[in-house]
């Protein structure tokens, strides 16, 4: 784009050319400066957590958290990995919920989207509205909460961490608009060959929808990985705490942490390096996302692009 | 055999209908039945009666809600925060998207985008931990910087006045990457011929941005702002709860409808008042989205949501 623009510029030797080049340069400099500053602001908090988690507890108490630790220590991590039972349990819950929720949610999202975009399905608009309306109006927290705890009886189960987040209308809409770009002829010719709708969906449509599946799957997985809200509302059993909720609990309640460690055999009257431990736990709970992030980031960008273009 | 009419259509589409069944059931259970449960706002809830069997108590729940003095406070906070978020986030995201598009370095653009997108990926719990790291009175980074320069430490968690600024900054920080990528996608899809024509006509780069880029972004802006306006009575519970928690000292500046409803339900177990506040929120939100959509429809039919 900039290549064509500059060649046009060269071609038209008008008088304002020098000034226009200046404007462009000015904007470039402004762009680099502003974006660098914002990017640094986006990144510094993460560095703070990392450096705080590697700081010596005594130095934190005396001088506070610092971007560059005055004295380096891995005490928090060695403690975390010495008594990892609770943490591992929380990891297990989160991984199970994320895997099951993503697979099931993705399957249902795409199956629903496929039916809704079938032009020959007479009631597709009515059903689309049935789903869309839920984004406009809701009964609020209380009836939803009572539905889940009292009528469905799902409190304190693994199911309550999966089911309420299974489907999202916006993902159905994005998937639907992606599937609109798959030629209708595929469905039509398969029907003529005698294939059923479900088989067409599984064998023909799903493979073609792979890019959208990857993107939406990652959005769903991220939502499950980061969920703590359903646990806050519905989970009391310590063995069912997902990772983010476990972190939430520990940040607010280091005594609980001490107790959990005592149960797994730590020294009773040990003084915990509370502050660095909080930051170390934060990092361990975010770790997999930070590690996977560089590789999965482009799928999110792709997904937003699909959503933005198709509205 | 009757092949026409309603049942004929059902029979013809039975496979498709079967494929829709799980989603329909899902939204019935988790959206439509709770929608009907909104009648709880007018009931004296008891556990045996449940949502539909409990006795009616007229407007008592609303009376408590409005007389508690919280209704106005939480409504004001929710709406003002959301307006601030809509304005600040969109202006910032559009600016960054335009700059990212104009900046020449491909690698710089990629790296900047990756770094700015990072906050979107972490949970609000982790954001809460970061806030603790920054703002804690005894060990927080801000105070450790202040004391290094010989200044007095500030007690952020006990001073409501700081929080509107903090929360607006945090919301902007979390959504910057996501939003700017979305706007960047919209900018990239603008026909480049328009830019070239403008250049030939002697427009400078700022005129080009102002006259071509921004007008072409209007449909995207309208959709995103419309969606945000529809949620103007919904506070982002994850953010407010993890940043502020149950710190009552800050509520005057930070309590929103969602945190109030949650506390009333979970901490005080006052199902009636909580349901009334939820009802109030749902109705206001629904009315707002209808009005906003109607206004956009009047202005330009193509840009409306529905």
TrEMBL record, chain A:
It is found in: Cell membrane. CDD domains: TM_PBP2. Its main location: membrane. InterPro entries: MetI-like (IPR000515), MetI-like_sf (IPR035906). Keywords: Cell membrane, Membrane, Transmembrane, Transmembrane helix, Transport. It is a multi-pass membrane protein. SUPFAM superfamilies: MetI-like. The chain crosses the membrane at residues 25-48, 90-115, 127-146, 158-179, 200-225, 279-296. Pfam families: BPD_transp_1. GO terms for biological process: transmembrane transport. Residues 91-285 form the ABC transmembrane type-1 domain. One of its GO terms (cellular component) is plasma membrane. PANTHER family: ABC TRANSPORTER PERMEASE PROTEIN MG189-RELATED-RELATED, POLYGALACTURONAN_RHAMNOGALACTURONAN TRANSPORT SYSTEM PERMEASE PROTEIN YTCP. Belongs to the binding-protein-dependent transport system permease family. This is Putative aldouronate transport system permease protein. It comes from Paenibacillus phyllosphaerae.
From TrEMBL, chain B:
The chain crosses the membrane at residues 79-103, 115-135, 161-185, 214-233, 277-296. GO terms for cellular component: plasma membrane. GO terms for biological process: transmembrane transport. InterPro entries: MetI-like (IPR000515), MetI-like_sf (IPR035906), UgpAE/MalFG_permease (IPR050809). Keywords: Cell membrane, Membrane, Transmembrane, Transmembrane helix, Transport. Pfam families: BPD_transp_1. SUPFAM superfamilies: MetI-like (SSF161098). It is a multi-pass membrane protein. Residues 75-292 form the ABC transmembrane type-1 domain. It is found in: Cell membrane. Its main location: membrane. The keyword Membrane applies. PROSITE patterns: ABC_TM1. Belongs to the binding-protein-dependent transport system permease family. This is Putative aldouronate transport system permease protein. It comes from Paenibacillus phyllosphaerae.
